[in-house]
Amino acid sequence: PVPKMATAQLYCVCRQPYDVSRFMIECDICKDWFHGSCVEVEEHHAVDIDVYHCPNCDAHHGPSLMKKRRNWHRHDYTEPDDGSKPVQAGTSVFVRELQARTFPSGDEILQQMHGSQVTQRYLERHGFRYPIAVHKMEELGLRLPPPDFSVKDVERYVGGDKVIDVIDVARQADSKMKLSAFVKYYYSPQRPKVLNVISLEFSDTKMSELVVVPDIAQKMSWVENYWPDDSYFPKPFVQKYCLMGVKDSYTDFHIDFGGTSVWYHVLWGEKVFYLIKPTPANLALYEEWSSSPNQSEVFFGEKVDKCYKCVVRQGTTLLIPTGWIHAVLTSQDCMAFGGNFLHNLNIGMQLRCYEMERRLKTPDLFKFPYFEAICWYVAKNLLETLKESREDNCLPPEYLIKGVKALITALRNWLKREVTEPASEVPDHIRPSHLIKMLTKEIQYLENGNCGSKLMKSQGISACPSTRSAHERRSHARRTARRLRDQDHHHSHSPKAPSNLDIFEQHTQEVLKRLEMGPNEEDASLNLKFNKVSTASAAVAERSLDNNLRLLLCNGQPNNAGEHFRVVCVCVCVCLKCTGLKLNHICSESATSPSTEEDAIQGMLSMAGLLYSHPSEDPSKGEHHAKLKHRIQEHKNFMDSQGSGSNSSSEAWSSHTHSPAHGESPTLGYQYCETSLSPPLHPSKRPASNPPPISNQATKGKRPKKGMATAKQRLGKILKLSRHKPFFV
């Protein structure tokens, strides 16, 4: 027989099974349980009921009995007011006493800045250690709804059915209610309680379109820069919060989750911040205070040396750095927007705050979502940053080095902890032990001076930028492209002598560029350009006489017998005239066919950005072509007279160089081709419009399509130059 399935017990007037996500209340008469939403009892009201009667029992036993208030200074207002117990945080008595206290002015630690000054570069140079106040949000790149945006507007954009977390200020207790119920409470003539909304994250609602977070929070955010799109863990959304508080709302001293930095903007109303600097002594006192059983009875501001009072009025934006301990009082009805972000400037402090949360056993609901996972992602990216700095002989900024060291220690501890705690936040595609090893290796390079830091200091070379900006790491494709460029950069970074063809191409391009300039600009431009060439290549490549630039290419290769060098020489003498370009002669030791000669000419001129006109294509230029062939034949005869050519010199070649005869066309059948004359860029400097090289199985080993080979490749193939043992004479 098939066993019968156990049926779930049904509750409430709706006869539904128990749902852990919904608030329920027990009737003290029938002992049945009811959903608060079904019997119109809000969660924050339930604590005020002494004896509850459900709707059925209410008809026979009368209405529920409410608790009687006996004090105004305790979270449990039913306690007798005998004066023996101290005031607790959040109560009406506490708020009155807080407003009567005196504090050092926040101006002592507050940095008043223009929004345009609050940049990533500024904070990287000067640090982000003190709160910053900005009075014009537009300069921050911050965009918000207009100041007349109301609580009802929030309901309209977010939706009244959204369940939100609400704090009962007098009890400092959290409860849940629908947004529509809070809006009803907010606009009620008599508010029986002080309720505060501080954790309404609206990134997944229509209201998100009305808010653009400050540029600095966007560019520095770990989540925006390092969180991959294909992560197994859901992306944390902590950048867009709407805070709605009524007068006398109070949030006790705390550090924002994960040591995040935070931005606040008061849209309307006013908030008062009580700020405490995160010194080691203050952090130790804070942890002790947070774990004490009488925490709510002790005002933490009295336990530290200084607690600064900072009033934030309508239209002001406040940026609070990592680890600052702060409490907030809403002095009048207020709506504010804010957000949290992790960043590279204070990695050590962020990790310290997170470990403190763990020791205090902070519930996951009040911690940064997947904090350890994002630290692994950050570690992987910072490893790339350190490698780039080492390859470029740049010294990373001190804050980044310290941060990576703190990160290594934390990652090691988390990895050890996984043995006893199975819950892991290590991403699947990350090898944790290997990553820690490589990070440690990079730090050792820095500490041992292997990264070139000593050289930098002696030469006064500035440190490298610390991190890539957000748009450079935004997608998987861009990160892959950068790695490809970095690999190419790694192989080609060390300076080396240019090859024959490199110099030939460079000079040809410069000659053509000169032809486009006026007579007065020619020499200055060429001198400026050629001075940028390395001394070695310039000494080899530049030979000029009477405004003539002569370039000689020779290629020597031993024959099979090893008796002597067989020389195949190609001489290109380019005579620079203000009116044009003339190719004087092309020589080869062995006999060549006319088609080979034309191919050689056309190949070189294609590289130089010129088009060679075949005589059959343009009969009017046949005479020039015949003259050119005649000169080529002369130089063939000259080569034959030199024997093997092993003793030929550049002077011998130059003595047979012809100057253009009077009346000859300076172009000799060559037409200017509209082609780019700019020198090739290094792969790492390639403009964004050019996509990075694609490497996949379908294209590996295949030759470029016809017409796609570079000029250098065409010239090398046509002339059959050996790239292995080239030399210039």
Automatic annotation (TrEMBL):
Domain JmjC: 202-358
Annotated GO MF terms: histone H3K27me2/H3K27me3 demethylase activity; histone H3K9 demethylase activity; zinc ion binding
Keyword hit for Iron-sulfur: no
Domain PHD-type residue range list: 9-60
GO cellular component: nucleus
Domain of life: Eukaryota
Subcellular location: Nucleus
Compositionally biased residues, Basic residues: 471-482
Principal location listed in the UniProt entry: nucleus
Low complexity bias (residue ranges): 641-658
Coiled coil residues, start to end: none
Residue numbers spanned by region Disordered: 462-501, 638-717
BP GO terms, sorted: brain development
A Pfam family reported for this protein in Swiss-Prot or TrEMBL: PHD
Keywords annotated in UniProt: Chromatin regulator, Dioxygenase, Iron, Metal-binding, Neurogenesis, Nucleus, Oxidoreductase, Transcription, Transcription regulation, Zinc, Zinc-finger
Needed co-factor(s): Fe(2+)
Family: Belongs to the JHDM1 histone demethylase family. JHDM1D subfamily.
PANTHER family linked to this entry: PHD/F-BOX CONTAINING PROTEIN
Name of the protein: Lysine (K)-specific demethylase 7Ab
